[in-house]
Automatic annotation (TrEMBL):
InterPro entries: Chori_FkbO_Hyg5 (IPR031038), FkbO_Hyg5-like_N (IPR049368), RutC-like_sf (IPR035959). This is FkbO/Hyg5 family chorismatase. Residues 70-191 form the Chorismatase FkbO/Hyg5-like N-terminal domain. It comes from the Bacteria. It holds the Pfam family FkbO_Hyg5-like_N.
Amino acid sequence: MTVTHPGLARTAALDCLFVRPGDDGRARTAGRHVLGRVTYGHGGRPPQLHDGAPLARMAMAAADDERITEVWTTDRPVRHGRDGGLVYAEDGEHFLCAVRIEEQDVYRDTVRAVYEAAFTLMWRLGYTELLRMWNLVGAITGRNGEGMENYQDFCVGRAQAFESWSGRIPGMPAATGIGSLRPGIDLYFLACRDGRARHLENPRQTPAHRYPDRYGPKSPSFARATLLEPADGSRPVLYVSGTASIIGDDTVHPGDVERQCAVTLANIQALVAPDNLRRHGLAGGFRLADLDCVKVYVRDAEDLPAVRAHCAKALGAGPDIAFFNVDVCRPDLLVEIEGICR
Ligand SMILES: C=C(O[C@@H]1C=C(C(=O)O)C=C[C@H]1O)C(=O)O
């Protein structure tokens, strides 16, 4: 991890924290400007503007399960707005946008149209680099009206949008594509100005956009991580995509949640390590202990205690970790982990 002033690790220009019921959210964001709030909770609602920033309510927790609000803050004043179904905020360096796609019989055309509308909006406002995307897909491994998995259907529309914008938006960012607890697709993402984002792959895994077509007609459009190098020289921040027990392009240890946890964490360790950043021509690097704002997605509720224990042992008491009992993008994946290194 690199800091701009030895001994004074400045708060990142763009920051994230988890606020839980009972926390004093205002105290925890004092002195900062809110770019957006995303609640991983019950029920879910389309995104709206609330208290001067986008608020997206995601159906990610059953009634008596843990819920969090992920709050994105910045050290710069924020302007917000709405463009059709797109709710957004921006601070001159960073852009956050949220949008919901209601349940469709077949998703690909709507996904493409919504992604292209989002790209058009961010481009019009001068944010030309995607930083991190989250796609929460109801019944992610369920079937659409044509019998295709909803996730594969989603990937087709997303890939078509990236293909049509490939000359204007360089590369594909870190992302998460995970199940949610309600039909439809909830999407939110971060973007930044030109030249601030560097996308990384993982030496242990096939780049997702090069997956063979046995996983779907169009491969997933995301990188394994994205490094943000802020304009103000504050410390770089590494956004780690949802990561699972996949070596190469194969799921490993089907049916064994402990070993899937171990492979997932080993994948993240290799991804964020100085060797891998150096492989991409970047200085610095991180360790598992640098992960924060960790979200752990567990397919089967009965595996939650074991996964909690495994993550506590591997990540220690430092990071803020939230656990969610939702489906993963492949039926044989039992756990997935994402986070932010800073
Ligand atoms: C777990 C994987 O993919 C998941 C799906 C993603 C997407 O489609 O955007 C991104 C990361 C993960 O949430 C993987 O392919 O390794």
